[in-house]
Design a protein that fits this description.
Layout: H1 3-9, H2 23-37, H3 41-51, E1 52-59, E2 64-66, H4 68-80, E3 82-95, E4 98-109, E5 118-128, E6 134-141, H5 143-146, H6 152-164
Parallel strand pairs: 1-6
Antiparallel strand pairs: 1-2, 3-4, 4-5, 5-6
């Protein structure tokens, strides 16, 4: 499924989402914030299925996953590649059933940049179903500058290209 297909399938004009200002909306927002604030394997196993719908769509710019099984597996694999992944949600905006979470993520990788924290800023476009579960999650962040530049060979190449622009 592509992002465009996921957008159409989860269109707030066509499906029942959350009512604005309700306790259910507050719980859904809080659940998502709590989940991404600590992306450890333990936290993912305990909370992913309480946050994402069975047929949810996720694209974090690195990988596209459809369904809670794929999403949970992807998050666990990501967590295993890092010593720690945390995110601080700076603010949340809502427009017509679309939620935008602006965040700062800190990652300490196991295999490169040991002991250093790589910081990334980004935004997640989220849609919830009527049960308050995420049905669409599209991330927007600079994967080149905030991830790939820190890889040994690829990072050198990206920095070299940027210096010539």
């Amino acid at each position: 499924m592509s992002y465009q297909e996921a957008l159409q399938r989860t269109d707030p004009q066509k499906i029942q989402g959350l009512d604005k200002g309700t306790p259910e909306e507050k719980m859904a927002i809080g659940g998502f914030v709590d989940f991404i604030s600590n992306l450890s394997e333990e936290n993912i196993r305990a909370k992913a299925r309480k946050v994402y719908a069975p047929d949810a769509y996720l694209n974090d710019t690195l990988k596209e996953s459809v369904g809670i099984d794929q999403i949970e597996t992807y998050f666990i694999e990501t967590a295993r590649a890092a010593e720690e992944i945390t995110a601080k949600v700076e603010d949340v905006a809502e427009s017509g059933g679309n939620y935008y979470f602006r965040w700062t993520m800190n990652v300490r990788f196991k295999k490169f940049k040991k002991g250093e924290t790589v910081r990334s800023i980004g935004m997640s476009h989220i849609r919830f179903n009527s049960a308050g579960l995420v049905i669409l999650h599209q991330d927007y962040w600079d994967s080149g500058g905030n991830l790939f530049e820190h890889l040994p060979v690829v990072g050198w190449l990206i920095r070299r290209i940027k210096s010539r622009l």
